[in-house]
């Protein structure tokens, strides 16, 4: 039986090929690795049901970015179409808001950057993750060719 990871790798290759992409960005999958500097709240956000609910927001950097939906990203509804300051102003303001909230034990204002594959993040050493990804991509290519 094919695993969800194998199906995801196959979809990544298929969609990349169909769309003409020569590469794919896989940053989020590495956040749960022990080598990552992500804090416990970020790791929990990726391990929980919130990882299935990413959204685009301009609040993090002034430009559209995908993040795990939380209280910070919900502020986008209040801001609406108002101009967001360019980076690094928006980013620094968000970091200050997060620091103030975190000091009170509230982790809902963090910029938890996350791609659409956020639920696939795994807590394993990065070298092991790379080996798994390479194997899954090879399996997907083999299935696609056959």
What does this structure look like?
The structure is a single chain. This protein has 146 residues and is mainly α. The protein is built from 5 helices and 2 strands, in the order H-H-E-E-H-H-H. The chain has helices at residues 4-19, 40-47, 71-79, 89-103, 126-145; strands spanning 54-57, 65-68. A two-stranded antiparallel ribbon has the order 1-2. The longest helix is centred in the last third of the chain and has 20 residues, at 126-145.
Cα Rg: 17 Å
Strand-pairing-aware structural class? mainly alpha
Give the termini separation.
17 Å
What's the order of the H and E elements?
A: HHEEHHH
Biggest pleated-sheet summary: 2 strands, antiparallel
The whole-number mean of residue pLDDT values reads: 86
Q: Numbering strands along the chain, what is their spatial order in the largest sheet? A: 1-2
**Number of DSSP helical runs:** 5
What proportion of the residues is helical, as a percent range? 40-55%
> What is the total tally of β strands?
2
Shape: globular
Beta-strand fraction estimate: 5-15%
Low-confidence stretches: none
């Amino acid at each position: 039986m094919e695993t969800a990871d194998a199906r995801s790798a196959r979809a990544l290759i298929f969609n990349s090929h169909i769309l003409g992409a020569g590469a794919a960005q896989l940053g989020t999958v590495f956040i749960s690795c022990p080598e990552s500097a992500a804090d416990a709240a970020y790791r929990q956000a990726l391990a929980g049901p919130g990882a299935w609910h990413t959204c685009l927001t301009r609040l993090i950097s002034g430009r559209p970015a995908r993040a795990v939906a939380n209280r910070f990203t919900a502020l986008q509804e209040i801001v609406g179409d108002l101009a967001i300051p360019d980076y690094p102003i928006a980013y620094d303001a968000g970091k200050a808001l997060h620091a103030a909230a975190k000091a009170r034990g509230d982790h809902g204002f963090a910029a938890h950057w996350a791609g659409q594959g956020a639920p696939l993040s795994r807590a394993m050493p990065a070298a092991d993750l790379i080996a798994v990804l390479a194997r899954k991509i090879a399996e997907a290519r083999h299935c696609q060719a056959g």
